[in-house]
Amino acid sequence: MSPSRFFISSPLTPSPPGRQPPGAARVREGHNVFYASIRRGASRRATDASVAAPPARRGPSPAPLAEAGVWYSMVDLPSSALRRIEPSSARQAGKHRVGALPSFTSMNAMCLGEWVELLREKAGGVPGLGGVGEGLAGLVLEPASLQPYLHFRRGRYTRNLIYRDARLEVLLNCWDAGTFSPIHDHDGQECWFSVQSGAFVLENYTLEAGGLGPGPARLGPPVMVGPMGAGFVDFRCPEAPIHRVTATGGPAVSLHVYAGPVDRCLVFDTRRQRCVSRELRYHSVFGRPLAQLPEAPTPSAPL
């Protein structure tokens, strides 16, 4: 059965569809450096509320999710999640934690809302997301502005949506100590991975045969990077998309930017030399946890 679709005019509020969804084509062209301003800081400070409900549209910027509505399939927001938000205090925004809290290092601090607005403006003005890596290098966002998106689950990692439109997707992933992703690609998109707290080891793989779609896939030996701490940035592109991420030591937090939303990816099994397609899910949207479906026997929510 093909996935049902819901039109979301405000976070987690379904209403009848009125138009076709925006195109999901990959947005990537050029690498113009635009991020110098992010390292100097911005003149206006955004509030946490401006992140939960993305900032008002300006100029050519695309309409934010909470204003104009974005199409999601059931694999993004399961129907059970659309019907119910778990109300208990343990599931409220920023309250679902496991063990000790992650520690944050003060470096090039900026408010999350302010940073997302800068990113939106640049993504709306030019094709692609050139310069993101330069802007993320050494950047650790203000811990208080991340608080609504810090949701941990024991023995797993969570994917928490901060912002999404046709050109851009921003997630905060929260990792319980020792958790790891499957070996996965990024569906042909550019992806930036920024360590905000804790430490990570990355395993980068080359594709030696197959692996362009579900079926046979042979990977080369992994190249290990890390442990890497706060301020480190990793970049995945269509020419080198495959890696695995492991949170070492205590709980950890990573920020992810995609040059276009990623709804599916390939997950690789090196022993069987095969890969399968996985549908991605969010644990929370705008800081609000979703009702969780039964867990799969293997991780099915890679970065």
UniProtKB/TrEMBL annotation:
Keyword Metal-binding carried by entry: yes
A Pfam family assignment: CDO_I
Coiled coil: none
Domain of life of the organism encoding this protein: Bacteria
GO molecular function: ferrous iron binding; oxidoreductase activity, acting on single donors with incorporation of molecular oxygen, incorporation of two atoms of oxygen
InterPro entries: CDO_1, RmlC-like_jellyroll, RmlC_Cupin_sf
Residue numbers binding Fe cation: H184, H186, H243
Crosslink (3'-(S-cysteinyl)-tyrosine (Cys-Tyr)) position: C191-Y258
UniProt keyword annotations, A-Z: Dioxygenase, Iron, Metal-binding, Oxidoreductase, Thioether bond
SUPFAM superfamilies: RmlC-like cupins (SSF51182)
Entry keyword Metal-binding: yes
TM annotation in the entry: none
Region (Disordered): 1-26
Family, as annotated: Belongs to the cysteine dioxygenase family.
Protein known as: Cysteine dioxygenase
Organism: Myxococcus xanthus (strain DK1622)
